[in-house]
Amino acid sequence: MARLMKPANSRRGGSSKLKIYSMEASTAVAFVITIICLVLYYFKNKELAVQKAKEESFRKEIEAIQTKLNDAYQTIPKLANQQFEEFRRNELDILQVTLAESAKKSALAELETWKIQNEAFYRQDAINRSQAVILGKVTEHLVPFQNGFPFNPKEARFIGSPIDIIVFDGIDNEDIVDIYILEIKTGNSSLNKRQRLIRDAVLNKRVHWRELNV
Predict the structure, then answer these.
(1) Which of 4, 124, 155, 181 is deepest in the core (most CB within 10 A)?
(2) Count of domains observed in the chain
């Protein structure tokens, strides 16, 4: 019986060893799986951290770009207005210069046309005026010697400007002397401003005598 029982014990011992080996193998497999899971978890977390860092960096870049775009949106209208004002001023300056040159050319052309049309008339008018002035000067000199001159020609002194003649009436006879200021006018001519001032001074008795010893 003892011999018959030994094989049974041997089987039990072998079975126990198999169980132990199986448990150790299971433990080793579980350990390996755990290690693998930890390694995968580590790399997964690392990948997630890298991805998160990339996303954060990308978000910051997007925010920076958005800030620049906002600044650009605020600056663009000002720049556009400045460029428009500069363009408008330049165009206005060019337009003003163009209009001024055009007006100048037109005025010069009209002036030349007017000169051509009126040159003969104004030349003749200038000649007539010159002749009238010369005739007036000659007449002023000859008036004291014409018939009807109310004073002694010897007592008349021609001045010419601002009045024509001063008459010292009676000086030739060394008698009581009256002084007359004469202005000779021909045609429709009239006294100028200076001559009117002299006339008013005489009429208002603002005529004085003064001797200067030098």
Answers:
(1) 155
(2) 1
Judge whether 109 lies within some domain: no
**How many angstroms separate the Cα of 109 from the Cα of each of 46, 105, 114, 189?**
90, 6, 9, 36
Amino acid at 109: A
pLDDT in tens, 59-102: 888 888 888 777 777 777 777 788 788 887 888 888 888 888 88
Whole-number Å distance between alpha carbons of 127 and 103: 33
Give dist(CA 35, CA 46) in Å, integer: 16
DSSP single-letter state for residue 146: S
Residue 158 belongs to some domain of the structure: yes
What residues are paired with 165 via a beta bridge? Answer: 158, 182
Q: How far apart are CA 103 and CA 96, in angstroms?
A: 10
What are the distances in angstroms from CA 29 to CA 18, 32, 35, 36, 42? 16, 5, 10, 10, 19
The DSSP output letter for 148 is T
Residue 144, token pair as written in the block: 């004291």
Nearest to residue 168, comparing CAs of 205, 158, 177, 211?
Answer: 177
Residue 3: predicted pLDDT:
44
152: three-class secondary structure by DSSP: coil
Q: What's the CA gap between 39 and 47, in Å, rounded?
A: 12
